[in-house]
C-alpha cells in the first residue's frame, strides 16, 4: 500500500487498513498515551501493550512516533470541527459548543496542547489541517460582517482568537477550576459555561 501523507503509514500496512482492528486499537491507545504523556514522554512499547500488539506492528502502520501523533491529532481536529460548527450569527452559542467539547473531552485539549508545545509547526499535516479550519471560520465571519450580522470593525482573526481563548479558559486552567469547585458562589459546570457564554455575548451579541 502506498505511503499516506496524512497518516504516516508505510507500504507494509495491510490492505483494507481503514477497517483493521489492530490499527484502530493502536490509534485509540496512542490517543490516550499522547494526551497523558505528551509526544516526548509517550512510549511506543507502552501503547503497543495497551493496544494488545507489538512495537514492531505499530511501526508497520506508522513510520515514527511523530507520524502516529500527527494521525491522531488530525482525527481529533476533525472531530472538533464536526462537533463545534460555527453559526456566525450566534457566537455565544459557538463558545458554548467549544466549552462543551473541551469539558467532555479534556484529553483532546491536552493532546493538541502537547503538539503545540513540542512540535510547533514541524508537523505539517496537523498545522495544515488546523490552519484550514481557521481560514474557513474566518471566511464565515467575514460573510457575517458583509450580511450585517457582525460588527465590521472587528478583524475576523481577532474574533476567532478571542472566542477560542474564552471558551478554553477552564480547560487551560484546571487549577482555577479546582478553586471554583470549592469557593465559587455556584460551583457547577453549568455556571462556568454560563459565565463564558455571557462574556462572549457582551463582545459579540447574538443577532436578534
From TrEMBL:
Domain HTH tetR-type: 20-80
UniProt GO molecular function: DNA binding
Keywords: DNA-binding
Residue ranges: DNA binding: 43-62
GO biological process, one term: regulation of DNA-templated transcription
Protein name stated in the entry: TetR family transcriptional regulator
Source taxonomy: Bacteria, Bacillati, Actinomycetota, Actinomycetes, Kitasatosporales
Amino acid at each position: 500500500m502506498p505511503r499516506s501523507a496524512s497518516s504516516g503509514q508505510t507500504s507494509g500496512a495491510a490492505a483494507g487498513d481503514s477497517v483493521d482492528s489492530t490499527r484502530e486499537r493502536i490509534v485509540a491507545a496512542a490517543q490516550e498515551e499522547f494526551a497523558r504523556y505528551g509526544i516526548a514522554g509517550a512510549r511506543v512499547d507502552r501503547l503497543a501493550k495497551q493496544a494488545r500488539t507489538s512495537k514492531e506492528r505499530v511501526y508497520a502502520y506508522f513510520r515514527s512516533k511523530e507520524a502516529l501523533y500527527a494521525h491522531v491529532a488530525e482525527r481529533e481536529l476533525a472531530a472538533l470541527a464536526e462537533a463545534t460548527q460555527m453559526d456566525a450569527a450566534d457566537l455565544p452559542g459557538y463558545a458554548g459548543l467549544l466549552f462543551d467539547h473541551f469539558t467532555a473531552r479534556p484529553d483532546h485539549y491536552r493532546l493538541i496542547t502537547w503538539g503545540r508545545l513540542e512540535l510547533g509547526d514541524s508537523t505539517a499535516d496537523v498545522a495544515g489541517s488546523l490552519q484550514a479550519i481557521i481560514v474557513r471560520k474566518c471566511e464565515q465571519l467575514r460573510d457575517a460582517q458583509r450580511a450585517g450580522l457582525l460588527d465590521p470593525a472587528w478583524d475576523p482573526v481577532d474574533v476567532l482568537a478571542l472566542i477560542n481563548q474564552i471558551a478554553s479558559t477552564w480547560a487551560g486552567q484546571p487549577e482555577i477550576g479546582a478553586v471554583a469547585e470549592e469557593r465559587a458562589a455556584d460551583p457547577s459546570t453549568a455556571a462556568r459555561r454560563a459565565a463564558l457564554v455571557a462574556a462572549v455575548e457582551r463582545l459579540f451579541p447574538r443577532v436578534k
